[in-house]
Amino acid sequence: MTVQAEASTDARRRLASARTRSSGSGRPGRRTDGAWPWLFVAPLLIGVGVFYVWPILQTFWFSFTKWGAFGGSTFTGLSNYESMLADPEFYRSLLNTAIYTVIVLLGIPIAIWFAHLLETPGLRFAQFYRVLFFMPYVAMPAAIALVWRIIFNGDFGVLNWGLSLFGVSGPHWIATPGFALIAVSIVGLWSSLGFSMIILGAGLKDIPAELYEAARVDGASRARQFRSITVPMLTPSIFFVLIVTTISSFQLFDLLYALLGSTNPVLPKTMSVVFYFYSSGFIQNDKGLAAATAMVIFVLIGVITMIQFRLQKRWVRS
Q: How far is it, in rounded angstroms, from Cα 62 to Cα 291?
């Protein structure tokens, strides 16, 4: 026992001595790796600074300036923001963007249902169905728009032909105010459905099978299992899809431009807030107003995302 005690005491002394040497003055030592960590993260930091931070700061400065037709800027204060807030088309573009976002978000419950169906045990060709649903998400918006322009054509479109079988005369979808925005929203919902299904399908795989077995033992129906187990356990994935879909919906431009075209008479009443930015900067050549619009879009997306993160504590299951 005496030998073991002496050995233990000696080991403690050596450990204390090593700690003292590493810390210098007896304080906990700080590991110094020099500049190597910064060298490894420098390419990423430089890329973020050059391609993200600097353009945001530059746009913020441009929003307080007035640009001439041949270059050169003059500081004008808040005049660009005042002009934007006094323009009725800006508020119409915000409303159109909000309507489009709400319609596209309606695709999340549809994606939950389809993802749940694709996870049915023993379903044949499930991977093939996933690829079919995901293909529109990776396809070019211009290609998607060309296909849907044929579908929405008022004279020989497939949609109006289908409606005529039931005695309904369909409108000129992409050339009629009101219907044009609905048509763009339907295409946006359809193209985002595959991405949502993939994310939600991955979330479904993480739900323990024991929960469904216990529910079946208790006599719960499939509908009750879906409401009480699937949806609550899937809320983290639903929240992620909600954030991504909202942000992408507020950036609507290419699909709208390709589907309606630049000469469509309904475009002024159907434009999104990003199209308003494009119109200000590249059609009216008012770069200051375009920069102010870009900053408003940036702030709106940030505020909406922050609100969503605050509210997720009330319904997202951790």
A: 6
Report the alpha-carbon distance of residue 104 to residue 187 in Å, rounded: 9
State the pLDDT at residue 1: 47
Q: How is residue 147 written in tokens?
A: 């296909």
- Cβ of 260: how many Cβ atoms within 10 Å? 23
Looking up tokens 């940036």, which residue turns up?
298
C-alpha torsion sign, points 59, 63, 69, 74: negative
pLDDT along the chain (318 residues), means of 10: 52 57 52 78 92 93 86 87 94 95 94 89 86 88 89 88 88 88 94 92 89 89 89 93 95 91 86 94 91 95 94 86
Q: How many CB atoms lie within 10 A of CB 116?
A: 18
H-assigned helices in the chain = 2-23, 36-48, 54-62, 79-85, 88-105, 107-118, 126-138, 141-151, 158-164, 179-205, 209-217, 222-225, 231-233, 235-250, 254-260, 267-270, 273-278, 287-315
Nearest CA among 76, 116, 153, 129 for reference residue 238: 116
Instruction: Transcribe 207-270 into DSSP letters.
Output: S-HHHHHHHHHTT--HHHHIIIIIHHHTHHHHHHHHHHHHHHHHT--HHHHHHH-TT-TTHHHH
| CB burial string 202-233: b at 16+ within 10 A, e below | ebbeeeeeeeeeebeeeebeeeebeeebbeeb
pLDDT at site 70:
72
**pTM as predicted:** 0.84
